[in-house]
Structures are given as structure tokens and as C-alpha cells.
Design a protein that fits this description.
- The chain has five helices and five strands, in the order βααβαβαββα.
- It is α/β, with parallel strands linked by helices and 145 residues long.
- β3, α4 and β4 form a beta-alpha-beta unit.
- The radius of gyration is 14 Å and the shape is globular.
- Bound molecules: 1,3,4-trihydroxy-5-OXO-cyclohexanecarboxylic acid (DQA).
- The site of 1,3,4-trihydroxy-5-OXO-cyclohexanecarboxylic acid has 10 residues, from loops.
């Protein structure tokens, strides 16, 4: 069972980007933790990051028939991208929205997620742990089906 793990714009900067908000763990470290967690559950993660909306759209579409589910931290595209929302809806895979911070508790423009209505669930506010908790939840959900 493969879970696609997508991170969007500016998340390649984790570790040095506003550490008081996003913490000090790098995206590589997060990915390594997820690989370990997935392995213990007999699953696999395919972790990718892009600053380009089109790349994220292509990867979501390509997940059909290959992946069992998707974790996505779309960064700022979360709040703007109807295209990502449509892609998630079209691929019809269980998708969990992930955020390190709690966007609802921040600036007003972060309070709206374009993706939440087409996602199974959302995990936010636990820093890097949000990814691991989201993976656990998604694997539980898939195992329970
Ligand atoms: C984020 C929250 C977004 O509002 C922001 O644009 C990001 C990171 C998070 O993980 O907390 O880039 O998705």
C-alpha cells in the first residue's frame, strides 16, 4: 500500500523558515520519519515537494490506481487553489489535509481552506508531528475499510 505525501510551496525551507511557527525539523527529516512509520505498518510512502501547482496537480492525477491515499500540505495553495481541490475530488482517493501550524488561529486569509471540503480529514497545529499523525489516521482508515 503506497501513500502519496505531497508538500507544496516553500515547504522545502522547513528547518529555517519561520522556525517559531513551523519548527526546526527539515522536510527530509519529516519524510524519513514517515518512511519509518509506514514501514512498521506494512505500507510505503512516496514523498514529494514542489513549489509548482502544476506538478502537484500531475502527481495527484498519477496517484490513481497506484496509491491508496494522499497526505497533502499544500502550503499557501491550500487557501487559493480551486485546481488542487478539483484534482483531489477527481482522483477520488482518501486525502488528508496536513498543516504544521494551525491556520485557523493565524491571519484571516489562512482561515479558508479550498481543500478541506474534498478531504477525508485535516490534521494541523502539531508541528512536524501533524504529518505522522495524519499518516496514522489515514492508515487506520484504510485498514478499517
Ligand atoms: C502551512 C500553513 C499555510 O497557511 C502556509 O501558507 C504554509 C504552511 C502549514 O503547514 O502550517 O506554507 O500549510
Amino acid at each position: 500500500m503506497i501513500i502519496l505525501v505531497l508538500s507544496g510551496p516553500n515547504l522545502q525551507l522547513l528547518g529555517t523558515r519561520e522556525p517559531e511557527i513551523y519548527g526546526r525539523e527539515t522536510l527530509d527529516e519529516i519524510h524519513r520519519g514517515l518512511e519509518h512509520e509506514a514501514k512498521t505498518r506494512g505500507a510505503e510512502v512516496d514523498c514529494r515537494q514542489s513549489n509548482h501547482e502544476g506538478a502537484l496537480l500531475d502527481w495527484i492525477a498519477e496517484a490513481r490506481g497506484r496509491c491508496a491515499g494522499i497526505l497533502i500540505n499544500a502550503g499557501a495553495y491550500t487557501h487559493t487553489s480551486i485546481a488542487l481541490r478539483d484534482a483531489i475530488k477527481a482522483v477520488a482517493l482518501p486525502c488528508v489535509e496536513v498543516h504544521l501550524s494551525n491556520p485557523e488561529a493565524r491571519e484571516p486569509f489562512r482561515r479558508r481552506s479550498r481543500l478541506a471540503p474534498v478531504c477525508l480529514a485535516k490534521v494541523s497545529g502539531f508541528g512536524a508531528r501533524s504529518y505522522a499523525l495524519a499518516l496514522r489516521g489515514l492508515l487506520d482508515f484504510l485498514g478499517a475499510r
